[in-house]
Fold Putative spermidine/putrescine transport system ATP-binding protein.
Amino acid sequence: MTKNADLELVALTKRYSGTVAVDAIAHHFKAGVYACLLGPSGCGKSSTLRMIAGHETVSDGSILLGGKDVSHLPPAKRGTAMMFQSYALFPHLSVRDNVGFSLRMAGTDKVTRDRRADEMLELVEMTALADRKPDQLSGGQQQRVALARALITRPQVLLLDEPLSALDPFLRIRMRAELKRLQRELGISFIHVTHGQDEALALADEIIVMNDARIEQAGPARDVFNAPKTAFVARFMGGHNVLDLPQGKVALRSDQMIVMPAKAGRVDGRITGVEYQGTHVALTAQIAGSQDVTALIPEAQFFETPKAPGEVIGLGWDDIAAHPLAS
Ligand SMILES: Nc1ncnc2c1ncn2[C@@H]1O[C@H](COP(=O)(O)OP(=O)(O)OP(=O)(O)O)[C@@H](O)[C@H]1O
């Protein structure tokens, strides 16, 4: 099997009786990319991932891996592997046997599958626990085993469905660094479903924002964050104000708002909230049209000239900071 194949979704559609869960989406995942599918609950992320994996039938359209149509192949024949949210480890099998399970199904002899399982366990730094059962492992350790189990089939694309959601916040950040390291070392594509913007920004070379069964915007993480194309993306990525101005709707990053004396900015607003956030202070003000605007000000700067609710301030921004929105 050739390594490093591009994955292409062509008008990919999923219908469940009466519901269109994925509506003719098209996307080209370059080989070796770390991509995050990001979007609110119910937007079609998991259905997309499950179709790529072969765990869900394709209603219309196709999936090409390395130029070959894999849309109707069984999961084990696609060159993809999936790591599930629940890890789905077999409780009665040791860590090593869990990792080697798919090779056993494929009829590989025990010596070979144990050797391959041990290689995978080394990769995820779990060699010392190879003889344990899953219930003798922490959540983070179970996740490593699930990763090793998915990777043993040498997939070209690893599919991860909310892989970090069961972990506590501290472990989540550690495991996210691990995922990135593994992806870099293996050089294969990872497609990771999440509804966490922070997670997507931290991990992804490319972010694909989905909304209501469609792709709303796709591109490098920095582009999607800095230049959202729609109000939905700006709001969903967070950190932006979406303002309806005479020239149209624009997205403006909260940390690029400039607070000035009243009448000196582009708009005036009355302060409705002041929230201390440690490194920054979030100032919320209401401008014309009852629109709320948040300005994120470095804390030292805020305390040079503190402001209080009720005060009227001016708000400014550089032209380059305002991104016109399609809707
Ligand atoms: N097996 C199914 N039968 C019928 N409808 C389904 C089925 N699976 C998903 N759906 C519907 O399809 C739509 C997309 O679901 P999907 O699980 O792909 O979304 P998601 O973005 O992954 O959501 P979440 O973040 O909550 O997991 C939803 O409206 C959901 O209710």
